[in-house]
Amino acid sequence: MRSTVSVRWQTVIPRRIREALKIEPRMKLEWEIKDGIIMVYPIPSDPVQATRGILKGRGPTTQSLLTERGRQRKQEQKRKKI
Q1: Inter-residue contact 11 to 5 (CB < 8 Å)
Q2: Distance separating alpha carbons of residues 22 and 15, to the nearest angstrom
Q3: Model-level pTM?
Q4: pLDDT at 80
Q5: What span, in angstroms and rounded, lies between the C-alpha atoms of 56 and 31?
Q6: pLDDT tens, position by position, 8-57
Q7: Which residues of the chain form beta strands (DSSP E)?
Q8: Predicted local confidence at residue 3, as pLDDT
Q9: What is the DSSP letter of 1?
Q10: Contact 33, 39 (CB under 8 A)
Q11: Buried b (16+ CB within 10 A) or exposed e, 35-54
């Protein structure tokens, strides 16, 4: 995909990219140069809502964390008795 830079230094984000990244009008973009490559990151208007569920199905569950904490608590109690 290509776009052209206007004389006012503006360009159009191709439709497929806008749709894939859910870029909306007035949305902010973060620009970065990395190894001579322009990186553009869309900044959602509500970053908390945008990341909601991002870790679903990954990492420890609440139950596994509670189980681990229970084990730690038992070890602490054993150490206190010694």
Answers
A1: yes
A2: 10
A3: 0.50
A4: 83
A5: 28
A6: 999 999 999 999 998 999 999 999 999 999 999 998 777 676 666 666 77
A7: 28-34, 37-43
A8: 94
A9: -
A10: yes
A11: eeeeeeebeeeeeeeeeeee
